[in-house]
Design brief:
Layout: H1 3-19, E1 21-27, E2 32-38, E3 40-42, E4 47-53, H2 57-64, E5 67-74, E6 79-90, H3 93-99, E7 116-130, H4 134-147, E8 155-160
Antiparallel strand pairs: 1-2, 1-5, 3-4, 4-7, 5-6, 6-7, 7-8
Length: about 160
Amino acid sequence: MTHHDHDKQDKAWELAESIKFCMFITWDGERQRARPMASQPAKEEHAIYFLTDEESAKSHQIDRFPIITLAYADKSHNEFVSITGRAEVSDDREKIRELFSPFAKAWWDSPDDPQIRVIKVTPEDAEYWDSPSGPMANMKMLSAIVTGGRPDMGDNEKVDF
């Protein structure tokens, strides 16, 4: 793997870590299902973690169709990353306690709630867009219109993990 490939991987991880929330997309056998979820990326483990409920639809969908997509968007900075990978649901109580946060208390009383499960996503590939935002993006678009050229709208890279 080249230095450039490592840089692209690092950028995808950086975007997932900074944006935090994503649309977690599964397949139910007939159609895709998306829901917003708080992610907990762990680059050093090559994993992105989520807490969920044992009886959630996504848990059952992952059991049948483990390939999922995570779509992150930060419109205020014009940063986007889509990560596809393999998901698995487990009852790893140690990991659940590690991931449990004040935010999780909105859903469960404690990390010992027997309904909590952890989803581990192992990224396989990604694509990101890191573009100028606000006035700079508008200037580049206007310049392209005037000159007849294409605007330089930042980085767009495909990433293999």
